[in-house]
């Protein structure tokens, strides 16, 4: 495999084990991980890069922080409010992350500890097997920010938990803990938090020891359900990105920074 560790971004790295499992790790250690511009861009190509790395049989995505990943940094959001170029760049990257995970023939396992928001929720839920700690908090906060629930949500949430629950949670921006996420089918399994890493790693090791062709073919076949929903994904992503140019997104971001309730649809 060459080096035993890759740096994908300032707070995102890959570690390789002798068991065929490559661990994609959000950080920093003990703090809340966010996806800065470099990490967001790195998540586009990492799936194919790992698939093409000899000896890698499974990808485990986990965090050493006090949450899984809380989405984009305030700087990334501000740049999207201010710049057409930034919005288009993020749109290309968001498409690439979702497509990269769907098209990657390696099985992907996520170990969801604490908050998974924005791109963190996307990576957590697009994994082939998602393992959530009981105190995980899965949140799609787009509508609270004043933009459409785009990127991964339209393509995966209705398939996982049904259209009625998907609309309810996405429109309400609910925080869903691991126990509830398992109950409604949003994640594969929920476990006590102190068992999260060991359970997720055991699943990844089991998959890494399996037939690569059988697992790849199974994943590719099942993911045609996601590919069939691709027009809905493209539409939702475009509407989300357009939303960042509007007044509601500016108000939502200001309210978030000022720790107050947003006042949407108010001119002046």
Give a description of the structure.
The protein is α/β, with parallel strands linked by helices and 268 residues long. It is globular, with a radius of gyration of 18 Å. Helix 3 (84-103) packs antiparallel against helix 12 (230-243) and helix 6 (153-161) crosses helix 7 (163-172). Helices cover 51% and strands 16% of the residues. 44% of the residues are buried. The strands form two sheets. A seven-stranded mixed beta sheet has the order 1-2-3-4-5-7-10, with helices on both faces. Strands 6-8-9 form a three-stranded mixed beta sheet. The protein has helices spanning 37-51, 74-82, 84-103, 119-126, 142-145, 153-161, 163-172, 178-184, 196-208, 212-222, 224-228, 230-243, 247-258, and strands spanning 5-9, 12-16, 21-26, 58-63, 108-112, 115-117, 129-133, 137-139, 176-177, 189-191.
Outline of this structure?
The chain is an alpha/beta fold. The chain has helices at residues 37-51, 74-82, 84-103, 119-126, 142-145, 153-161, 163-172, 178-184, 196-208, 212-222, 224-228, 230-243, 247-258; strands at residues 5-9, 12-16, 21-26, 58-63, 108-112, 115-117, 129-133, 137-139, 176-177, 189-191.
N/C terminus separation:
57 Å
Unreliable residue runs: none
What spatial order of strands do you see in the largest sheet?
A: 1-2-3-4-5-7-10
Continuous helix count: 13
Beta-strand share of residues: 15-25%
Helix content: 40-55%
Q: Structural class per helix/strand content?
A: alpha/beta
User: Kindly state the mean pLDDT as a whole number?
Assistant: 95
